[in-house]
Please model this.
Amino acid sequence: MTTSVAATKYWHQLKDGRIQCDLCPRYCTLQEGQQGLCFVRARQQDQIVLTTYGRSSGFCVDPIEKKPLNHFLPGTSVISFGTAGCNLSCKFCQNWDMSKSRQMDTLADEASPETIARAAAKLGCRSVAYTYNDPIIFHEYAIDVAQACREVGVKSVAVTAGYVCDEPRKEFYQYMDAANVDLKGFTERFYKQICGGSLQPVLDTLVYIKQHTNAWLEITTLVIPGENDSEAEIERLTQWVMEHLGPDVPVHFSAFHPDYKMLDRPPTPATTLTMARRIAMKNGIRYAYTGNVQDEEGGGTYCHHCHKKLIGRNWYELSEWNLTAEGACRFCGTPCAGVFEAQPGRWGARRAPVMLKQFR
Model:
């Protein structure tokens, strides 16, 4: 039987008696019984505890491309899960019913790390994704799941906003095999006014993953009309990626749809995403994608040397595969950056909710 409360270690006591949580740059300071902004880390008995350990908002088998990860085991299936709460307050949140929930009944399924690892292996999933809300806030649970998965040969994928402090960042990414980081915009104004956070810690996370870990990295920017969709901002963002991360980190530009507290903005035009992809490629990024729209060209992976299509995609379905067993272009032999196997997976675009009771 799992428990919903677990001790944590990233906190310290202040002189005035409050305890400061040191997991993320919000640095919430709490009196006894108070919760942090994330809702799930709280002060109990003079320490910070995680109140959602072993409890999830539900489990689902997805295509890995939905995370989105286009260069990490394409075509394979992944068990996705999250918990309640979040340490940012994005006005456009697409999963606000979970990430902004203060109610424990949001956590519909209960599973130990070993149960999740066992389920992934038996269902044929190559990886487990910590997603829906940010795995940073269920740091201890995510790490324990990742360790259990590693023991049975299942990979771990973090889908995260990257808003985390230095020491927990180092510990967390020891156990991750891949990450998709939401680079939500490229101005401090956007992060402060729209997300309730700050840009620099996210940039620090991106650099840390790329330079100091073995995790495969991809980036997603949700492009919102009138907020972060200007050519000038996309220029700065993609130039920064090139300078600090290099040409081989894939960047996804995804379409916004009105949700949560941003119902007054229109959906992102496909032409805006095409513009962003064009700027990224002009600036040297080899793998730039459009997302949340029907766009076979923008969803395809192309050889950066001969420019022929290596992987064709129709939404989350693979339609073409022109990589060798070594992950190189079969036309000219140029390696394609990523984590590939000799053959792609065959999961397709299916989405299959799963209850983990049968795997306990």
